Amino acid sequence: MSTLPDTQYDPIEALDVRGDFPALAQTVNGHPLTFLDSAASAQQPAAVIDAVRRYQENDHANVHRGVHTLSHRATEAYEGARDRVRSFVNAASRSEIVLTKGTTEAVNLVAQSFVRPRIGSGEKIVISHMEHHANIVPWQILCEQTGAELVVAPIDERGKLRLDALYSLLDESVRILGITHVSNALGTINPIAEITAEARARGIPVLVDGAQGVPHSPVDVQALGCDFYAFSAHKMFGPTGTGVLYGREALLEAMPPYQGGGDMILEVRFDGTIYNELPYKFEAGTPNIAGVVGLGAAIEYLEGIGMDRVNAHEQLLLADMMERLGKIDGLRLIGTAEYKASVQSFVVDGIHPHDLGTLLDQQGVAVRTGHHCAMPVMQFFDVPGTARASLALYNTADDVERLIAALERAIRMFR
Ligand code: C6P
Description:
38% of the residues lie in helices and 17% in strands. The protein has helices at residues 11-14, 46-59, 69-88, 103-115, 137-146, 163-169, 192-201, 221-224, 249-254, 289-305, 307-326, 353-361, 375-381, 397-414, and strands at 27-28, 31-32, 34-35, 97-100, 124-128, 149-153, 174-180, 206-209, 228-232, 243-247, 265-269, 272-275, 331-334, 343-348, 365-366, 368-370, 386-390. Mean pLDDT is 96; it is low at 1-9. The chain binds ligand C6P.
C-alpha cells in the first residue's frame, strides 16, 4: 500500500491501494477492469487472501473443541478476529459480537430470537421504504407467524427518509425498528444516532442493517446508540459466508438461542440442556473459521488505512461521479440525498439497465443492474431496475473517467 504522509494528504492521491487487490490487475473483455460493484461484494486485498491461505495451510482445525496445537491455533485465530471486530465497531464487550453467516442471518436471528417472543397480534414492526430484502422479508415472515403488522416509513423523491413521518409511526405498539444505515440502492446515509435516540426515548429497540455502513466510514455502535447492528464480511473486503451481529449484552443474554447444536451448549441431557454463555449461545455448529480469519485480516487492513481516510477518498470520488453522470443527456440519477455513501443508481432513457450493464461490461466496466434486492425502492421510483455504480477505497478518478467514457459510448451505440 502506498500512502502519503498525513501532512500532505490529498485523498484522491493518497489512497492508491489498487495494487493491494490482485483481482483488479486483470483485463476484462480486453480492457483494464473497472470494478464498480463493491456494494454487491467487494474485492479482497492480498493481506486477506494470504491470511486465509496461511490459516488453511497451517492452522486449520475445529475451534473450541480440541486440546491439540492446531485446534488451539484455530481457536486463537477465530477469537482474535472477534476481538478485532469488537474494537472495529467499538462494542463494549466481546460477548456482544456474534459471528454469523452474514447480515441476512443476523437480521433473521434478531427477528426470531429477540422480537418473536416479545410480539403479538396487532403489534408492530417498523422499517423504512429503502430497506434491502434482508431487512424486509424476515419481518414479513415474523408477521405471518405472529399476526404482527409491518409498517413502512416513507422516503422522498431524493431517496431521503422522511424522519417526521418515521417518528410519527413510533408509538407504544411498536416492538422494533429495523433501519438501514446506508441504502444499497440509493446510497442514502440515515442519521442513525438521531433515529435511535427518538426510538429509545419511546422504549423501542433498534436494529441497524449495517451491511453498507461498515465499508465506508467509521462505525461506533455505542455512539450510534443502537441495540443491534448487522453486517457482512464480504462487503468490507473479507470473505463471503461470514458476518456479524452486534447486540447489547443485556438483550442477547435475555434471548433464547436461534439454532441448536454443537458449541452452543454447556451440558446436554435428555431431560434438559444448559446453553453456553455469550456469544457462543448463538453460534451453533462448526463456524466458517477461515471466513472469520479473513474478516479479522480485512479489519486489520482497513485499520491500517483508517476509515476516515477511506470515507474522505470515497466522498471526493462520489461527488465527481455524481456531477459527471448528471451531465449525461437522458441519464437520471436515482438517489440524490444530501448525505450519501459512494453508491449511485441511475437509469438512461430508452436503454434497459441490463442492456446498459452488458455494454459497460464489454468495455471492462462492472456495475450491478436490476433491483438490487430492494424492489420497493424500484417501485417507489417507478423503474424496473437501475444501473448502480458503487465505489470502494480502491477506486480512483480513472475508474470514474472510464465509467463516463464507457457510458457515453454505450449510449451512442443505442441512439
Ligand atoms: N446487498 C447488493 O448488491 P448478505 O447477503 O447477507 O451479505 O447481505 C444482505 C444485505 C443486507 N443489507 C444491505 C443494505 C445490503 O446491501 C445487503 C446485500 C448486495 O446491494 C447484494 S443483494
